[in-house]
Write a structure and sequence with these properties.
With 166 residues, this protein is of the alpha/beta class. The protein is built from seven helices and nine strands, in the order E-H-E-H-H-E-H-E-H-E-E-E-H-E-E-H. Helix 5 crosses helix 6. It holds the Pfam family PTSIIB_sorb.
Length: 166
């Protein structure tokens, strides 16, 4: 069983991932793909130990992530892929990485130039463009903070971003 869950979540590995999502989707390992985390020994160490001991965690740059997601698609075990931004997934896709056709989006906190488009979801223009790119590649993008919530499609939230621009 290859990649069972692909998620954008600015908190990366936390209680909802390990306690709730991993109960619904099979998970033997988590691939965290983020250039900043991969290059920061302190953050890397924290996230390496954030999952239960039965779930392996690997932390990679976007370039390294291309090879890892392609290997994970062929693996016997199942993996979660977690990134902090759609920009990372766009880069992985452009470099030949295939992480599947389903993308779940969790929290994306407000930052400097972001626009809020949903509950705990704020995006930049670059992130909007990355979501559009991924959707145009045939990826189904849904926003859902926790499993119990009804997923909301990118098409709906995109209109809120566009409406706010005017």
């Amino acid at each position: 069983m290859p990649i069972s869950f692909v998620r954008i979540d600015d908190r990366v590995i936390h209680g909802q991932i390990v306690a709730r999502w991993s109960k619904l989707k099979p998970c033997n390992g988590i691939l965290v793909i983020d250039d900043k985390i991969a290059s920061d020994p302190l953050q890397k160490g924290i996230f390496m130990h954030a999952a239960p001991s039965n779930i392996k965690v690997g932390i990679y740059t976007a370039e390294e992530g291309v090879e890892k997601v392609n290997k994970a698609k062929q693996a016997k075990n199942s993996y979660f892929v977690i990134v902090k931004s759609p920009v990372t997934l766009k880069k992985i896709n452009e470099l030949g990485g295939d992480f599947g056709t389903e993308l779940n989006v969790g929290p994306m906190s407000a930052r400097g130039t972001t626009k809020t488009i949903g509950k705990n979801v704020s995006i930049t223009e670059e992130e909007k463009e990355a979501f559009d790119f991924l959707q145009n590649k045939g990826i189904n993008i849904t926003f859902q903070l926790v499993p119990e919530e009804t997923p909301v499609k990118w098409e709906k939230l995109k209109t809120l971003y566009t409406r706010e621009e005017k």
